[in-house]
Amino acid sequence: MADPIEKVSIIISKGSLEGIYPGLIMANGARAEGIEANLFFTFFGMDAIHKARHEHIKLATVGNPGLHLPTMAGGLPGVSAVMTKYMNHKMEELDIPSIPEFIELIADTGAGLYACQASVDLFGLSKDDFIDQVEAIITVGEFYEIAAGGHIIFT
Amino acid sequence: MTTETIAGVAVDRNEEGFFTDATQWTEDMAPELAKAEGIDELTPDHWTVIRFMRSEYFDKGTGPTVRMLGKTSGVSVKELYQLFPKGPAKIAARIAGIPKPRGCI
Prior knowledge:
heterodimer, A: alpha/beta, Hypothetical Protein Ychn, Chain: A, 5-stranded parallel beta sheet, 6 helices, globular, B: mainly alpha, Arc Repressor Mutant, subunit A, two-stranded antiparallel sheet, 2 strands, 45% helix
């Protein structure tokens, strides 16, 4: 059998519902397998750990051909909200946790949560803007130090 | 699949160390199985999880995931990882003599 994976560092760079969930599922799944996991939030992905925003993550209805919705329709006011509500409802039926609940769960499993220094500077944020589970705001160099010896997954 | 002797009884386990027939398991086997996972002593909390894993498996056909354990077993996710650092659902399933729980979340 091939060598088992022992450590992963997952980067979440997008702030849409479909941009955030896959990284969270992979981090949670890694911990379930006993794999060490760290999550690094950068650019709009930081919304997932932003106190005021993480409860309001929306599905991208424009520029998302997978949705099979005409771009014009996707851009109409309220469409993103309705589609997000529908998706959240479907996920609730399948007992998939909301983003805030999921992140809390992942932190409880012992995964490390970090925000990107460059993005924090760019958006004028500070540690106070993030949920308490965020361990630190780190530079890309520090990220590579933390990720050393494991796999890096960019989402 | 291999046949091994655990606590003096022959049992069948797959390549990953999970029982292929949960009915072959007895409580006497748990301490030996736990030791192989690096858990030297099974506390009452370990037993809560092990018994819960089995009852869920016989009830639903698959063992619970970590999230389900955290929600329904009475042991929190943080505590679960203290009890079974190498992955609560997976390790507890091995010790509890049930197949590996399936589920993405």
